[in-house]
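Budget justification aside, the reviewers requested a transparent look at the raw inputs and outputs of the sequence design task funded under Objective 1. We therefore reproduce one unedited record. The lines immediately below are the structure tokens for a 553-residue chain.
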């Protein structure tokens, strides 16, 4: 029986310490207990993935038996006059057992089929806890369009490899990886989906509680981005005394645009209102709205069908990016990586870098021209575009804020007084961060850096792939740059920077003394502490690389 009334679940009696689910020692301090509870939750998440794989495997076996019985009846020549086909019956029976609505039961059965037949290599990652159930459900959905066995096997192989090597990622990021791989291996399926997409365009409305309603517009991704930015232009043009939240102003602005009504500031003192809402001001601000798409020149020329990246959306098809390039308001610019070439050195690359490459070494390019003349803090236009393109979003795991709407953060902090002593303005040290995560990184642990976050960025010497990491409560997660596939040229780029050496311990870095020295001393201590923490983490990563191989471990 599934429903039991005879006491606690047998799961509560299991000893789970062997799989890492060890409750914290109450004798330790609160900081240690908090970290240990996070580790407990992480182990539970991996266990959840294994149980989901077990559930899907069992459902797949049930489906195999049910459909196998039908196959036996057909082979025996019996006349089939059942009112419902076995597939429909199976979905309904799964829905009953798990108390699911029909669409969720269908999704569960689809995941079971993927586990056993369509994506078995990817399903192994679910079994082993490398990916979670949400990631697996997303990639099953995004690969459902592939029907032929040969491309499906290639998709499964490459998807498993990509997810295993991606590090810490969200379900949405995994879906983008799946889209990119499907675009490469089954262009016919992608073309069919692209041709059918216009049929999904619509405007729908639904009711919500408390007298609210929602309006959902389905259109081309770039059009929705432009429309959203246009609404934001109106919403942010109100004066500071407007009592509405930004969300309320966006709602009012969108309705005003659709109904061709005037959108006004809601402040009480109209004579002192500083809103910039006249037609000319709005037109000027809307004219500055830009969305970014990145692709290979060969894709734009029609020489291949490689996908592109649309900022704020993710992978789009080659046909789609070519359509964007033909728009009358489109501006096509080359991302000339040769402009990053180091002009202050011979461009020679150390033997160690060449030895780290797999296969015959290709000619490598030493980059160094990465900041603007006279301003070593600001990146060149080429580096700015490159850093945003290769990461695609904010680099904090789970955050999908578009890269071109992020700040470009110097991971190792830039030293404005002594630039040579701080982090460089280079691909090896620039990471997009949304405003929220940039502020959190900057201000958490202002007086005690151990209470803040430690982020890091490094370049894999084997193939030029940027990796980022963040350490929270002593727990470090690593993430591969999601759009590395978009820029194969990175394999040839190397910079001349090395990780900054940790500072020597001194009284200058005493937290109590530094706080007495004012904000500059506090900041200097925080940066020095983070520099030492990054050095420790890099040494630990190097030891793990030797013992376990490259991340994820």
């Amino acid at each position: 029986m599934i429903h039991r009334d005879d006491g606690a679940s047998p799961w509560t009696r299991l000893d789970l310490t062997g799989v890492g689910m060890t409750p914290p020692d109450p004798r330790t301090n609160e900081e240690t207990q908090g970290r240990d509870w996070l580790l407990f939750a992480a182990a539970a998440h991996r266990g959840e993935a294994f149980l989901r794989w077990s559930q899907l495997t069992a459902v797949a076996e049930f489906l195999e038996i049910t459909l196998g019985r039908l196959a036996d009846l057909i082979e025996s020549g019996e006349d089939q006059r059942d009112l419902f086909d076995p597939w429909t019956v199976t979905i309904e029976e799964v829905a009953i057992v798990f108390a699911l609505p029909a669409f969720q039961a269908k999704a569960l059965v689809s995941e079971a089929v993927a586990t056993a037949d369509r994506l078995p290599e990817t399903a192994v990652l679910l079994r082993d806890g490398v990916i979670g159930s949400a990631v697996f459900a997303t990639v099953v959905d995004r690969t459902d369009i592939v029907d032929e066995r040969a491309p499906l096997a290639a998709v499964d192989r490459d998807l498993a490899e990509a997810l295993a090597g991606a590090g810490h990622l969200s379900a949405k990021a995994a879906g983008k990886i799946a889209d990119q791989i499907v675009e490469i291996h089954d262009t016919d399926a992608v073309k069919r989906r692209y041709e059918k997409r216009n049929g999904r365009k619509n405007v729908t409305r639904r009711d919500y509680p408390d007298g609210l309603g929602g309006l959902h517009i389905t259109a081309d991704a770039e059009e929705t981005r432009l429309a959203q930015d246009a609404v934001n232009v109106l919403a942010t043009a109100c004066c500071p005394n407007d009592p509405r939240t930004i969300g309320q102003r966006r709602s009012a602005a969108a309705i005003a645009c659709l109904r061709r009504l005037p959108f006004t500031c809601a402040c009480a003192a109209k004579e002192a209102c500083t809103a910039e809402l006249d037609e000319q001001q709005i037109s000027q601000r809307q004219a500055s709205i830009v969305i970014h798409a990145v692709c290979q020149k060969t894709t734009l020329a029609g020489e291949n069908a490689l996908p592109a990246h649309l900022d704020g959306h993710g992978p789009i098809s080659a046909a789609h990016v070519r359509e964007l390039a033909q728009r009358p308001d489109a501006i096509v610019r080359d991302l000339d990586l040769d402009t990053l070439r180091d002009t202050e050195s011979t461009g020679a690359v150390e033997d160690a870098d060449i030895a780290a490459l797999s296969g015959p070494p290709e000619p490598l390019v030493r980059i160094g021209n990465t900041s603007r003349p006279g301003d070593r803090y600001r990146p060149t236009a080429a580096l700015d575009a490159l850093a945003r393109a290769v990461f695609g979003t904010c680099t904090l795991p789970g955050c999908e804020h578009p890269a071109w709407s992020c700040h470009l953060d110097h991971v190792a902090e830039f030293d404005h007084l002594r630039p040579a002593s701080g982090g460089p303005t280079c691909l090896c040290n620039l990471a997009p961060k949304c405003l929220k995560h940039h502020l959190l990184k900057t201000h958490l642990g202002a007086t005690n850096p151990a209470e803040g976050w430690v982020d890091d960025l490094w370049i894999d010497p084997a193939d030029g792939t940027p990796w980022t990491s963040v350490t929270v409560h002593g727990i470090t997660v690593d993430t591969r740059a999601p759009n590395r596939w978009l820029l194969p040229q990175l394999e040839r780029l190397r910079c001349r920077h090395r990780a900054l050496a940790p500072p020597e311990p001194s009284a200058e870095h005493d937290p109590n003394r530094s706080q007495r020295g004012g904000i500059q001393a506090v900041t200097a201590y925080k940066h020095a502490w983070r520099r030492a923490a990054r050095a420790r983490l890099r040494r630990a990563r190097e030891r793990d690389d030797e013992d376990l191989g490259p991340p994820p471990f």
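The two ends are 39 Å apart (CA to CA). Confidence is low (pLDDT under 50) at residues 346-361, 505-509. Computational costs for records of this kind are itemized in the attached budget.
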